[in-house]
Amino acid sequence: MQEVYEFLKKAGTYWLATAEGDQPRVRPFGTYHVYNGKLYIQTGKVKPVSKQIAANPKVEIGAQSGGEWIRIAATLVSDSDIEAEKSLIAAYPSLAERYTPGDGNTEVLYLKDATATFSSFAGEPKVVKF
Q1: C-alpha distances out from residue 17 to 30, 50, 78, 83, 90, Å
Q2: CB atoms within 10 A of CB 61
Q3: Buried residues in 96-127 as b, exposed as e (16+ CB within 10 A)
Q4: What is the pTM of this model?
């Protein structure tokens, strides 16, 4: 999982794909955080992406850095632990303008049953599960 975190950190922005009925939805994200041995992302509960994840928690994440890219298939699990919210918001101070731990809107989710595939044009893909 640490290798996945480091790649996302290097990439900066990643793309989160969800489903809304039979329509795929993709949008850029920039939050990724390790807390209690799990890889977390964050969103707002009022956003359509939160509702899409609640209806179907299976997602894919894609990111690129240089000539390498990663695809992550996972199930997102919403975590109501206020300490997880505090930890993620502390890691991203700019979020404090819009989110406060325990505000009823802040949502932190961790990746479960994740399969990350690292790829490039230079070699064989590498698969990491966590």
Answers
A1: 13, 12, 16, 27, 25
A2: 23
A3: eeebebeeeebbbbbbeebebebbeeeeeeee
A4: 0.95
For 65: left if phi > 0, alpha if psi spans -120 to 50, otherwise beta; the answer is beta
Alpha-carbon Rg of the chain, whole angstroms? 14
Q: Give which of 20, 5, 9, 22 is closest to 110, Cα–Cα.
A: 5
End-to-end Cα, the chain, rounded Å: 6
Ordered domains of the chain (ranges, CATH):
2-129 (2.30.110.10)
Summarize pLDDT for 29-72 with one digit per residue, the tens: 999 999 999 999 999 999 999 999 999 999 999 999 999 999 99
Token pair belonging to 56: 């179907």
- What six digits make up the tokens of 47? 């956003």
| DSSP-based three-state secondary structure for 73 | strand
Q: pLDDT of 67-108, one tens digit each?
A: 999 999 999 999 999 999 999 999 999 999 999 999 999 999
Report CA-CA distances (Å) from 22 to 4, 25, 88, 115: 29, 10, 31, 23
